[in-house]
Amino acid sequence: SRLIKKTFTGDLEAKIESYPEFPGSEKHYLKAQIVRITFANVIIPDGMRQQDEEDEKKEELQFVEDSKYPDWETVSNKENWVHYHPNVLQAGRVRHYIPPEVTEEEVEEKEAELTEKDPYVPRL
Q1: What is the pTM of this model?
Q2: Is 66 helix (H, G, I), strand (E, B) or coil?
Q3: Residue range 101-122: average pLDDT?
């Protein structure tokens, strides 16, 4: 949906005729656009939540127990804000898709190959 420039018709069942081809109806395209906008624009004060140290690709952030709401000086500086949601990859997902037929020995190699083509962008 990131490469398509299309005006919505209001008919959620309408076929999206575009180049590149979009594999769904207008309701799927609308949802894809809403997700992209939301994931790019939800921000939180830095230090309020943290990523799981064991798995930095994990989607959920943990609330920091001893954090307190920042003062005006802190929130007025844009360097003190971070994205809450993970970055949407070029493939349209937040994590790379590893097909189920890939063996456990090949998973790490496949993920490294996919990450090289479409890297994760750190959010914190």
Answers
A1: 0.66
A2: coil
A3: 88
